[in-house]
Amino acid sequence: MIDIFYNFYKSFLMTDTLNIMEARTGREKQVYKKGSIRQVAGCVPVNKTTKKILLITPRREKKGGWMLPKGGWENDESEQEAAIRETYEEAGARGKVTSLIGVWDHKDINKKTGLPKATFSFFEMEVEKLEDKWPEMDERDRQWFAYDDALKALIKPFMREVVEQCSLAPSNKKSKKEFSESNIIKNHKDTWNLKFSVIIVFFTFLTGIWYLIIKDNKLYLF
């Protein structure tokens, strides 16, 4: 019963967070692993119908280009919830997370610890709705890109790697097809191996019967 109320309360808080028109700021409540590795979560927002990816610009005061929505994971939410929240705050997109694409380490290393400064976890989100107003609408632009155009537009190389592993990537479709075909070939081989084994057992059984019949009639061929 306690778990039910806790989950309801947490869900209520999460819904309330996604409805406010103010983005979370500051890093005081953010999650750090091993004392110094900032945990960042984000999404690759996709439209499966149009086969496009939603990208955003950095904040107005930073250099131009396009990027994926992402931000710090805070200690009152799960990693996936953080990715959903950041995608809403930065891109105004709502939808369902379908998979964890992967985890990437920040290219910069903390000189004191020798560890990466941050770790990025990216999820794939199927966008169901784009809000007309969202927390960072005055600070960022958003735009849908075809897969190839998204790769060209992204300013961070590691984000290109992220997109290359999403469900819209041609390489992923090819690998799935190859995997499927390899399974079919394997299944055919297994089927023929099974049939061959059954035939061997059957003929061994017949040979045994034939031997007993001959032995009972005292007819020996050798």
Automatic annotation (TrEMBL):
<dbReference type="GO" id="GO:0005634">
    <property type="term" value="C:nucleus"/>
</dbReference>
<dbReference type="GO" id="GO:0005737">
    <property type="term" value="C:cytoplasm"/>
</dbReference>
<keyword id="KW-1133">Transmembrane helix</keyword>
<dbReference type="Pfam" id="PF00293">
    <property type="entry name" value="NUDIX"/>
</dbReference>
<keyword id="KW-0378">Hydrolase</keyword>
<keyword id="KW-0472">Membrane</keyword>
<feature type="transmembrane region" description="Helical">
    <location>
        <begin position="196"/>
        <end position="214"/>
    </location>
</feature>
<keyword id="KW-0479">Metal-binding</keyword>
<dbReference type="InterPro" id="IPR015797">
    <property type="entry name" value="NUDIX_hydrolase-like_dom_sf"/>
</dbReference>
<dbReference type="GO" id="GO:0046872">
    <property type="term" value="F:metal ion binding"/>
</dbReference>
<keyword id="KW-0812">Transmembrane</keyword>
<dbReference type="GO" id="GO:0016462">
    <property type="term" value="F:pyrophosphatase activity"/>
</dbReference>
<keyword id="KW-0460">Magnesium</keyword>
<dbReference type="InterPro" id="IPR020084">
    <property type="entry name" value="NUDIX_hydrolase_CS"/>
</dbReference>
<feature type="domain" description="Nudix hydrolase">
    <location>
        <begin position="36"/>
        <end position="168"/>
    </location>
</feature>
<protein>
    <submittedName>
        <fullName>Polyphosphatase DDP1</fullName>
    </submittedName>
</protein>
<dbReference type="InterPro" id="IPR000086">
    <property type="entry name" value="NUDIX_hydrolase_dom"/>
</dbReference>
<dbReference type="InterPro" id="IPR047198">
    <property type="entry name" value="DDP-like_NUDIX"/>
</dbReference>
